[in-house]
Amino acid sequence: MTAPLFGILQLDRGDPWGYAELQGLVQAWLQDAGGFAAVGLAVYLLYALATPTDKSESERLRVPVSTWMLGMAALALVSYAIYLALIIFKKGEVPVPPLPRRASRPSPSCPSGTVRRRPSPS
């Protein structure tokens, strides 16, 4: 007997991507690149703010912070706050389709499915 498999390496991912998926792929790439850029900008701004300003002019020129960088950081922060609010309040989600009803078979005498008993003649 052989030992059972510990894991499977799956190399085939199915059909290759084509032009039909290009819009979704570009959107995913932009989201990923934007996230990494926002993290990099935040780390750089924290470093630039931590650098003392009483240093020499040459040391201050090595870590410049422009108004463009601060504006983009503020825009990214506001965008992430709006996105977080949408997630918290569950807005913009794809609605979940309702579960299918069970097929019940109502009796022909009563459309509601309940069986009525006739009084017995006594």
The SS-based structural class is mainly alpha
Distance between the termini: 77 Å
Average pLDDT confidence is: 79
Broad shape: elongated
Please report the total strand number as a whole number.
0
Q: Considering DSSP H and I runs of 4 or more, what fraction of the residues is helical?
A: 40-55%
Low-confidence stretches: none
Order of helices and strands: HHH
Work out the helix count.
3
Rg is 32 Å
Q: What share of residues are in beta strands?
A: under 5%
Q: Please describe the biggest sheet, giving its number of strands, its sense, and whether it closes into a barrel.
A: none
Report on this structure:
This protein has 122 residues and is an all-alpha fold. The chain is built from three helices and no strands. It is elongated and about 110 Å long.
Note the main attributes of this structure.
122 residues; mainly alpha; elongated
Short description:
This protein has about 120 residues and is mainly α. It has helices at about 20-50, 55-60, 65-90.
Topology:
Elements: H1 22-50, H2 57-62, H3 67-88
Helix pairs in contact: 1-3
